[in-house]
Every structure is written in structure tokens, then in C-alpha cells.
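=== How it folds ===
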Amino acid sequence: MSSKPAAAQGSYVTFQLSGYEIGEWKAPYHQDSLIYFSTDHLSIKENLEDPTLEEWEQKTYTLEISASALRERMDVLGFTLALAEEHFLTEVRSNWERLGTYDFMAAEITAPPDSIAHDLLMAAKATFSNSLPDREHWQELTELVIENCTVEKPDRAHLSSAMNYLDFSVIARLAVENFEGIATLDLTDIVQSEWLLEADLSNLNQSIDNQYLIITEGSTDKAIISSALKKFKPHLVDLFYFADEALPIPQTGASRVLELLKAFKSLKVINNVIAVFDNDAAGVEEYDIAVNVCEGAQNMEAIKLPDLDELTQIVCEGPDGRHVTNINGRAASIEMYLDRPPLGRGEVETKWTSHLKRSGAWQGEPLNKRKIQQHFHRHHADVSYNSVGIIAVLNEVISAASRIGERKTRNALETEEN
């Protein structure tokens, strides 16, 4: 009877795209799987028919998610395409320079490191953009990349060595950029060797370092963004949480968001923070200040709800009557990003409520706010619900998270290299 392998010694995780093995990495699970969560599809399969298998070998363990969802999740975590490309170039360039120092192959290393690095990056991107082989015609990933490379002999013989030891996150991010299918992480080896216990597979959660605290102007914004994340971006839900409405800040609305942001900045909190302002006059005023508050803080971003073309022709009522006007930056609270009931010609949708002294702008708000909110909570899961506006809001939040994540990931990589 064969013995169970020692924990972590010789244990690997394997990354696959629609069943094609991209590569395997020997490293602790918590480093190589930051991009996979327990909420992803966990598959545990048993093979009881093969008598040659030991009991501990009979189960396989995989986590699955769509490549498009993984791509967006990696961006939020800071593993952006730009950063992956930069790291790929740096590692390949370094490997090629090292190969040139070996006397026995120095004569065959003729191409400049920059040229080799860029050729291999283009070849890798082309490889992942094409149809990958099926299991019957499987090849090593490096072989596929080299086939797409324009490098000539004698350098061509050493290209696989130039791609040694590339990080899991780099390869995974490049791989999913243009791929549509299922991205799988095979954990079988590290579970069988007890580096990761089967019982722990249901509790693979992100640490607070990789999550984002969202501050909104009020409970309505919080409830809507939270519900929208669960419906339209379920693969990102574990990465976001919201500020407690009970925090002792006397201000309300946009002023409350700004004061919280200032407090977090002065306290040097290490949490990742995203401050979300409405796209109305009051929100824009405080947003402009918040951008300066976030200056120099790698873990903070201030955003406002996005300008939308459909908000440039809205009937608004004020002291001088009804007018069709652009309410971007003036009266676009979160309700204007939700599915709203159709109105008759000339029917009022928003109204001016006050004039702001600081900016001299009119502040407005939508009519029937409560009705629009109720419609969202009751029907946003319906196929017929118009989600274009709220998805645009989510994309702003995701972009802010990605900027924070990329800054922190870049700093971490630079620290490792130094």
C-alpha cells in the first residue's frame, strides 16, 4: 500500500481553460488562489471503479467560474491586464539576460532581451486568443506560444527557458483576457496531500486586505448597490462591504461621505475605501474635494455616479417652469440609474429643490423616488428589467476598486523584486 504524500511537498494546483491545462504551480493555496472563492462552483468527484487507487486518491477537487467573471474579479483584485503584461515582460527579460550569462549557451543567445520579451508576449496573447487544442492534441503551453513566435534560430531553442517561473496570476490574467469558457482551478493534489483540508473548501474567503469598503450617501444607495452586485456581479460580492449607517457622523448625504473619507485618511486606515457620490450638484461639489483628499492614498478612491447620455434630455420643473435639460451633475441621484416608468410627452421627471451658494448650481432630484426604488427591489431580477444604468454604476465602482488593487499589487511586486 502506497503512503499518502507529505503535506505541501511536491503539491501543485492546476489551472485549466475549458479542460485544457494551462499550467501547474507549486505554492501555498492562499497565494495561488486569491482569485477563487468558496462561492464558485465546487466540484468533488469520486472514482470508486479504479481498484488501483488508494482511498485518498479517489476524489478530485475543482473550483470553476466563467473566464469573463474571473477576468473581472482579477481586475478588482489588482491583477489587471496592464500589470500582467508588465510583469510578463520583466520576468522574461530577466530570464533571457540570465541565460546569456551561461558560457555553454551564450553564443546562442543573440536576440536583445526586450525583443524576446515583446515577441513572447505577443505570441502568448495570440495563443490565448485562438482555439486551444482538445485533450487528444494537448501540448505544453510553452510549445503553443513558441509556435506563434517569430523568433528565429538559434534563440528559438531557448524560448521555453525564458518563460520559466512566471507567476500564476500573470498567466491566468493573460489567459482569460479574450477567452470565453470555463476557468478551472484543480485543487486535487493539494487536498490529497492535506495542504488544504476538504473541510476548508467551503470557507475560502478573502481577507480584509483584498476587500473594498463602500461609503454611500445614504441607506438607499447602499441597498441598491448591494442588491445590484448580488444580481449582476455575483462573482464580486465577496469583495465589497458597506460602511455602517450608524457611524457617528453628524452630516448627511454627500457631506457625510466626505467627512468619513477625511476621517479615514487622517486615521491612516489600511482598509481599501471607495467613496460614492451622487451625480447631482451637491454630490459633485463634495466629490471634487474628495478627489483631493484621496491624493497620495493608495487605498482610497472617490467616484461619482457616471454621466449618461439618456440624462441629457430630462424634463425638469423649477421656479421658471418646465424645461428639457441635462441633469448630469445637477439632479442625477441613484434613482435616475434605475428602470423608470415611461412618461408622457412633456411629463415632469425631476424638479429643482435648492440653489447651492458654493458652486452657484441648482440642485435637483427625481420625482417618485420611492416608487422607482420599490420597482427596483421587486423587479430587478426580472429579465425585462432595464439594468443598463445600474450596471454603469457598478462598473464605476469596479473601476475604482481596480485602480486601488493595481496600485497595491504593483507595490507588492516591486517590493518582492527589491
Remarks:
- The chain has 13 helices and 15 strands.
- The longest helix spans residues 388-417.
- The chain has a mean pLDDT of 86.
- Residues 34 and 206 are 7 Å apart (CA to CA).
